[in-house]
Amino acid sequence: QVQLVESGGGLVQAGGSLTLSCAASGRTLSGYTMGWFRQAPGKEREFVAGASWSGGTNYADFVKGRFTISRDNAKNTILLQMNSLKPEDTAIYSCAARSMSSVTMLDRAYDYWGQGTQVTVSS
Question: How many CA within 13 A on the CB side of residue 107?
């Protein structure tokens, strides 16, 4: 069993930056692929970024060049550095883990989820 806890959300002005952190416990993330998803009010959850255990990454088109996912396997933590934030980035951001080696944008492919952290970008 993997427990995931996100932190780092908050209120930021458009153009600003935030770094989200996801700490895992219960077992090592060795071999796990990690992902960040978000869900805005009234919208479906959507893939933001993912990182495989081997270091491969994938990003949604709407965050390419602005967000960076990274993982610290020694600390069992993944980060999401978010720059040039826009009001449309406002959402609850959740991290997820899947016990497979490849990144996928399908949320149903992930086995474990954190509770999420709110990110609000003001205009």
Answer: 14
Tens of pLDDT, residue by residue, the chain (123 residues): 899 999 999 999 999 999 999 999 998 888 899 999 999 999 999 999 999 988 899 999 999 999 999 998 889 999 999 999 999 999 999 999 999 888 899 999 999 999 999 999 999
User: Is there a contact between 118 and 92 (Cβ–Cβ < 8 Å)?
Assistant: yes
DSSP class per residue in the chain: --EEEEE--EEEETT--EEEEEEEESS--TT-EEEEEEE-TTS--EEEEEE-TTS-EEE-GGGTTTEEEEEETTTTEEEEEE-S--GGG-EEEEEEEESSSS--S-GGG--EE---EEEEEE-
> Among 121, 117, 107, 53, which residue's Cα sits nearest to residue 80?
117
